[in-house]
């Protein structure tokens, strides 16, 4: 169970708003799903992450500003957020996937338990 401060909660809620999904989609389309950092190095890398160049906590007003958004690959994104530690994102994704699977498993085994014990 994660305990989140009010501020963190605000940022997480933001990522679930339609306004963000629209802004993110616009950035992806505008930048053709290509990591802008890789592009600057002359590399073509397809990516689906949209990054706030000035972080949300420093520029809440720019959260939907296209000038503050860019497509970024996972590798570059981890470099942009050293405070998260590299690979953290992958770890969380993995955790979520495992959790989903065990929920499904629990659900079906609970059914059997119901028959046996209730
Ligand atoms: Zn990149
Ligand atoms: Zn970012």
UniProtKB/TrEMBL annotation:
Domain HNH nuclease span(s) in chain numbering: 22-78
* Recorded GO CC terms: cytosol
Keywords (A to Z) from UniProt: Endonuclease, Hydrolase, Nuclease
Domain of life, per UniProt, equals: Bacteria
Q: Which Pfam families match?
A: HNH (PF01844)
* Keyword Hydrolase (UniProt): yes
Gene Ontology molecular functions: endonuclease activity; hydrolase activity; nucleic acid binding; zinc ion binding
Q: To which protein family does this belong?
A: Belongs to the HNH nuclease family.
Q: What is this protein called?
A: Putative HNH nuclease YajD
